[in-house]
Amino acid sequence: MVSVELRNVSKRWDGFELRVDLSVKDGEFLTLLGPSGCGKTTTLRIIAGLEKPDSGRVLFDGTDVTDLEPNERNIGIVFQDYALFPHMTVFKNIAFGLEMRKLPRGEIERRVKWALELVGLSGLENRYPEQLSGGQQQRVALARALVIEPEVLLLDEPLSNLDAKIRERLRSEIRRIQRELGITTVYVTHDQEEAMAVSDRIAVMNVGRIEQIGEPLELYYKPRTEFVARFLGTSNILELEAENGVARLGNLEFSVGVDGKVKVFFRPESVLITEGEDATVTGYELLPGRMRLYLDVEGHTIIAERPLPDLPFEPNRVPPRVGILVRSFSLLSL
Ligand SMILES: Nc1ncnc2c1ncn2[C@@H]1O[C@H](COP(=O)(O)OP(=O)(O)OP(=O)(O)O)[C@@H](O)[C@H]1O
């Protein structure tokens, strides 16, 4: 397996400029996450060799592959729309790359069988793509990408065309297969939950730049910017004035260690609800197994989410005021 590196890579189009430095470790599952148009696909296509950068280098295991064509790079790639050959059986679709490489018949059969088992499609090799569900078609695409035993697996929104249940199942299968093979993987998605569920690390992209890169929980609980905080989930962001290293809001005290304007950040589940009078309840929602409370403290809205057993009241008896404690917080850049 190999590492993948983008060094000072840039690509410019009318009204858009991509600038990335990125290092994907050997055997790592790295996700490029960001809103539509931020440059995820372009970054992936540059790694694949489907797009040439205007400047910068692409390295596989320290070797410069910038000038190599995609078929010279030993990559497997899976797209959103499966891109299977409709007139070929599952077997033929998966075998295609091996036949192009003129492998012996027996070797092709052995490898296709292995790939079919890997993606859980054994027995379906004689079907045509139109006889398969979307999820099965995407498994074929995955098998086809893996059968050539690539050093790097690239996946561009592979689950976007599938419905929610299949999406969840297939994402954990992709992760299982990736772990089993230990293959260096770059995965593109705009879905934060998907990114959190599968990745070793996530690179959050915003207008052509990587805004922050880190492990899922690090990004989730310690985002550096408001963009990353909001993109990864429901956020509480309080703009406060700190004095003597402490920012105060009602009875809440945040030891921030600096003075002046600060942006205090915490997730809804970091807010503990107690019996008390700190905050006015302005609304609430019952969610599966938990309750979301909308609270007001001196004109600032705070969203809290607690599992039902952790509430000091019955879900159908929400009091007008509650006590709150913020268990952990971090500071965002101003
Ligand atoms: N071949 C091209 N010619 C001109 N502009 C392009 C080309 N490919 C991409 N772009 C532009 O580059 C920007 C980034 O596109 P890209 O597809 O990388 O974003 P993305 O984050 O993958 O978005 P999405 O999730 O919508 O696919 C967009 O503004 C897009 O219009």
Automatic annotation (TrEMBL):
Keywords associated with the record: ATP-binding, Molybdenum, Nucleotide-binding, Sugar transport, Transport
Coiled-coil region list: none
Substrates-to-products reaction catalysed: tungstate(in) + ATP + H2O = tungstate(out) + ADP + phosphate + H(+)
Enzyme Commission (EC) number: 7.3.2.6
InterPro entries hit by this protein: AAA+_ATPase (IPR003593), ABC_SmlMolc_Importer (IPR050093), ABC_transporter-like_ATP-bd (IPR003439), ABC_transporter-like_CS (IPR017871), Mo/tungstate-bd_C_term_dom (IPR008995), P-loop_NTPase (IPR027417)
Cellular component GO terms held in the UniProt record: plasma membrane
Pfam families recorded: ABC_tran
Broad class of the protein's primary localization: membrane
Keyword Nucleotide-binding appears in the UniProt entry: yes
Record-linked SUPFAM superfamilies: MOP-like (SSF50331), P-loop containing nucleoside triphosphate hydrolases (SSF52540)
Localization per Swiss-Prot or TrEMBL: Cell membrane
Quaternary assembly: The complex is composed of two ATP-binding proteins (WtpC), two transmembrane proteins (WtpB) and a solute-binding protein (WtpA).
Function: Part of the ABC transporter complex WtpABC involved in molybdate/tungstate import. Responsible for energy coupling to the transport system.
Official protein name in the record: Molybdate/tungstate import ATP-binding protein WtpC
UniProt organism field: Thermococcus nautili
